[in-house]
TrEMBL record:
Multifunctional enzyme acting as 1,4-alpha-D-glucan:1,4-alpha-D-glucan 4-alpha-D-glycosyltransferase and amylo-1,6-glucosidase in glycogen degradation. It comes from Cyprinus carpio. Its main location: cytoplasm. This is Glycogen debranching enzyme. It catalyses: Transfers a segment of a (1->4)-alpha-D-glucan to a new position in an acceptor, which may be glucose or a (1->4)-alpha-D-glucan; Hydrolysis of (1->6)-alpha-D-glucosidic branch linkages in glycogen phosphorylase limit dextrin. It comes from the Eukaryota. One of its GO terms (molecular function) is amylo-alpha-1,6-glucosidase activity. GO terms for cellular component: cytoplasm. Keywords: Cytoplasm, Glycogen biosynthesis, Glycosidase, Glycosyltransferase, Hydrolase, Multifunctional enzyme, Transferase. Coiled coil: none annotated. Residues 121-552 form the Glycogen debranching enzyme glucanotransferase domain. Residues 698-975 form the Glycogen debranching enzyme central domain.
Amino acid sequence: MTAKQIRVMVLNDMEKLERTLFRLEQGFELQFRLGPTLQGKHVHVHTNYPAEGERFERHKFRVLDWINPTGREDDSDKFCTLDLKISGSYQYYFGHGDKEKSGDGYIVVDPVLRVGEDNHVLPLDCISIQTYLSKCLGPLDEWLDRLRVAKEAGYNMIHFTPLQTLGVSRSCYSLADQLELNPDFSPPGQTYTWTDVANLLEKMKNEWNMLCITDVVYNHTAANSKWIKKHPECGYNLVNSPHLKPAWVLDRALWHVTCAIADGKYKDKGLPALIQNHEHLHAIRGVLWQDVFPKIKLWEFFQVKVEPMVEQFRTLLQSGAKPDRSKAEGKQQLKIIQDPQFRRFGNTVDMNSALETFVPHGSSPGAIEDCCNWLRRRLEELNGEHYHEIKHHQEQATNCIAETVSYERLADHGPKLGPVTRKHPLVTRYFTFPFEEATFEQDLELMNQPEKSCHFLAHNGWVMGDDPLRNFAEPGSNVYIRRELICWGDSVKLRYGNGPEDCPYLWAHMQKYTEITAKHFVGVRLDNCHSTPLHVAEAMLAAARSVRPNLYVIAELFTGSELIDNVFVNRLGITSLIREAMSAGDSHEEGRLVYRYGGEPVGAFLQPSLRPLVPSIAHAMFLDVTHDNECPIQIRSVYDSLPSSAIVSMACCATGSTRGYDELVPHQISVVSEERFYSKWNPQAKPSSPDEVNLQSGIIAGKLALNRLHQELASKGFNQVFVDQVDVDIVAVTRHCPSTHQSVVAVCRTAFKNPKHHRYTDEVPPMCIPGKIEEVVLEARTVERQADSYKKDERSINGMPGYTVEIKEHIQLKDSKVVRQAGVTSRGRSEFVQEIVFEQLTPGSVIAFRVSLDPKSQELVGVLRHHLIQFNPLYKAGSLPDPNTPGILKNPLTQIMSKMTLADMNILLFRCDSEEKEDGGGCYNIPGWKPLKYGGLQGLLSVMADIRPKNDLGHPFCDNLRQGDWMIDYVSNRLISRGGTLAEVGQWFQAMFAYLKHIPRYLIPCYFDAILVGAYTTALDVTFKQMSSFVQNGSTFVKLLALGSVQMCAVGRFPALPPLSPALSDVPYRVNEITKQKEQCCVSMAAGLPHFSAGIFRCWGRDTFIALRGLMLVTGRHMEARNIILAFAGTMRHGLIPNLLGEGVGARFNCRDAVWWWLQCIQDYCTMVPNGTDILQCPVSRMYPTDDSKPLTAGTVDQLLYEVIHEAMERHMQGIEFRERNAGPQIDNNMRDEGFNIVAKVNPDTGFVYGGNRFNCGTWMDKMGESERARNKGIPATPRDGSAVEIVGLCKSTLRWLVALHKQGLFPYNSLAIHKDGKQLSMSYEEWDRKVQQNFEKMFYVSHDPNDPNEKHPELVHKQGIYKDSYGASSTWCDYQLRPNFPIAMVVAPELFTVEHAWEALNISEEKLLGPLGMKTLDPDDMVYCGVYDNSLENDNYNLARGFNYHQGPEWLWPIGYFLRAKIYFAKKLGKDTYDKTVYLVKNVLSRHYVHMERSSWKGLPELTNENGQYCPFSCETQAWSLATVLEVLHDL
């Protein structure tokens, strides 16, 4: 059972894709998902694809339902789906809110064709089609004898030109009656009907396995169609299209010139009836300019009669008329208004704009007269402009007439029509004229008689270089008057209007015609498709599909633009576009077309069954020549017919030809003038017999072999293509089957020039063919034979009898005449190559080899595929059981991986270069490219994710795999060296790679990818199973973020955390490789990759505890979280938790906030983990039981965690004041001496924690100046001394929690003892909590009231309605800066805030600070704001040098998590409407993080970006707290 194919269309706002082609197959599922611009919006998707069991109606759209797989508010994975079961073209559009349409496009679903008695499927790429001109088939009872030629030549589809009654010109495409079968098909005494045709087609389908299609012609009908005489409204005539009158007058004038030339009247002017030279052409120009144009005065149709207009104007002025302002849209230029009936001088002017433009200076007769003169002058100018415009049209008409005459009568490649006669006029007439010949003046009188002029119908034709989406017969087009139409004088252009209501008879007639066609034929070719009005073809094909749902539609488009081609393909649901090998000027171009029109490259990657829907080019029907094009024998040579056919047959698309090509008919079989019949099939036919053919005729035997090969390759899945231009004339095309790895290589030597007259080289370069040649499928060449020379037969369409094909099929290489020798060479241990030296690859010959992998490689690939079935059932095809399966491969990989811990997964999947180097390794470096981001699988898969969808096999990564086993060995050896379960996974890789290394190198990238993708997806499954249900049942985005926990949390070679108390249970241990002693191996958390990942800079107290809730508690890694909390607790000193951990021994206690983040994490642990409060009773091994003790070993002094918590609180209440140990440049090169003095105390009046000084920075905004040149060295950019808002919030959160714990009996302390001035005092936790609650809003809120009694510094306020960033800073103005810190306090201690104030402050933050991925760290209105961080910048700018603005503008990601969580919390308090809008904002913001993560090769979120989300090269590429806080937002949702 193969997996269901699912394609995902990502919708983006304002994306209009009507010129993009998306092709799908029946049985596919199409999912619509929202792109980042639409996340969170209420999007509605509409489609006209019918619901199950309903009929398709083009204009009936339905809304699709959203499916949200997680069922949660985080619906980033939601999609709506279509199960595609019906072929055709379907439209979708989507909108959101009150926007009905904010994007749209089309999907085209291919039909499924069935053939034979058993109704088996004929894949589109299997089609071999041959075109027949129906009129050349003779009576219906002789058709099978003539059509048998196609069957015997191996074709499986026939294209008939229309079978309807033909018009008087006998052109195959000029139909007199669209509903009637051509009576020529019925012999005397017999009348055949459509039923007889249907029986014949059914017989061919069942007995010959052959399908039939025919043309539909919508654009025109024969000029002699009876129905058009009854219904002249169906064409463009002078009554319904009066704009054509001037063109008709010119056309009649030209007809009378024809008559005059034919009657010899211009002989004396140097213009005889037989036009033979350029003087004669010059004479024609003279006649036009001297006799025709002055006589017909076409400009009069576009001009105005001046005097009556002036009179009318004078009358208005005399009556005192004023312009009507309500009519005028601004001041209008005076313009001539075209008479809709196009009468001479029938035009008028708008008197309103005349009154506006020409205003008299008074009411005196003189003033009025002046005004009238102005108008008269202006009207004469306008008339002059129209005169010149018509003159330009006449110049173009003259040129077009001269070119036409030159082509038809002088050119060597033209039809050489001979003298001008009424039968062969000077130029083809543009309009029908169904009346007796009369004088030109009499003709002109008919123009004004509607009952007659309705029969002057415009002919159809085509216009060189015209816009195919424009109808050239409609008003606004000048094609007819400029004589730009290359006219088909036998056909009338049909006028459909905008819909059936405009011409009911025509629409009904053509619909009936369509339904008859669709009933009998499996498909249609849209004739003249590019100039058939799109809405007409659309409606007719919808009618055809209601008769035959799996309608096969083909067309040839001459738009010159792939984008415009796509408009036709999309709107009409065209299945295949006709492409022609004859369009190639040389063999190189012919080979390129094969590569362009189908298949993937050889060795392509296996694509996942669920993948993005990508634009494609239209499916090709690649023909060696089409039936309406010149004969290749005339353009190239007879010897080229076979090799060019072979190149076409090797294309991975539908292919075909036209009848006559295979018999080597040396001229074009004209669709207009050919009246002879095709020859019949007779196996015993003689070469000289003109009316019979067999396998010896022309290249028929070669074509049979090629058609069989083409069909076999398509049906057996040879869908990979490689085209090699061996030399100027030789093209080698390889078709490869990705499951069996068999190939067929066809080497074709073209002969564009005739070898008899052109010297071809005898030197044919040898060819190397990878693999083992099983057989020569065919070798063939065109040879001369004894026969009469070609003579065009009177009755039968005959080919050149003097040529046949010498062909051998299915022979061994040794029996080949074309190959001299085939040496076997082995390139490396797995490259088995055969070198072919050619003996007789003469121009016009073809040889095709069937190539397998050598037996050893074949077996190894089969076994490898067998072991890959566990990941994808598609590998079943071509798999072989392995008799000697190594033990490690006997169990599925899931079984091995299920023993791995998440710390093992960190090694398997991630680890950046510095982490790898700590273990003595490094990330894999691809020479000439760059190192991978990770040593683990993610490093490889990030690159492969870019290469795979594009099949970019030329990428340096793939080159490296093909050139050697280095990368392969790196993957397995890296894991084996680790020991334990990782080594088992490494051995699994090693065993899989043992097969991989011995298969041909060109296949290694795709199988390496398959092995890695299988292992990677297995590892992810196992990883998520070890996480919380929130992650397991979460969206793809949640899982991506949760992987950040695996990325950041690791056990290094050297333990990063100080040892835990030996009395603690469930602590992981390992044996140290060097000391052989047992040691703890707890997971520690990196702050960010790559800069903070290894050694002393890996672990930071602040970063760890900001990220711990998201990366460890939310993901369910409770035990590891407990160990990190307790390890840091053990390093407490001075009542603080270290910032830089340095394994505890090298810790620095220079930050005021880490201890509060640590306390918040303990609170979160207690509330989020089952029985979480047990942690309070856990033993903590104190490294520094007193401030001055040396570091003690684990277990020397143990305390319970709640005692350590109480100590931290008591020390703050007592007041912390100390100088850092070893103060000076040895611990901090930039710090000034005062900066080493650490203070953290509690204000007894407000309860606020405060501390720091202006020379140190104790919060997360901790940039210390480093530039002596800019004089900022030793000065913190953001000291944030005093009471930082987030610390006050965290402290309040802790107090509230401890008070509650005490009430529950889980925390024994209710008050803190302090010593002041020798006295022992105490303060209860409840009182401290109350003080903070009472003072926070008073002291921190910046109110709108200028007289607010709590506001001590109203002069410093520059934003009202916000919360201060700090309170009591040494530089008071810093308190008033808008920064993204107060939302942290809102999340941890929302009780401090009034809802209305909080909401306003958050909205100001949103407006001023919210960036695409992060929050601006400073208000952009602040004078020191700068959003671009450059740590290497050394200049004189105090605010910028050496990255001094690190927290003065750049957009940090982690605060966005708190901002969004605060928004969600307070929105819930403000009602549903506000909450819904907030959820939209949250989803919209987070969608940008989702996109970033998906695209990031680090699979992470950065530490910060520069302003407006721009990339910052100095940022960590992935940061623990960025990932954590975004994950927490999704958890809150």
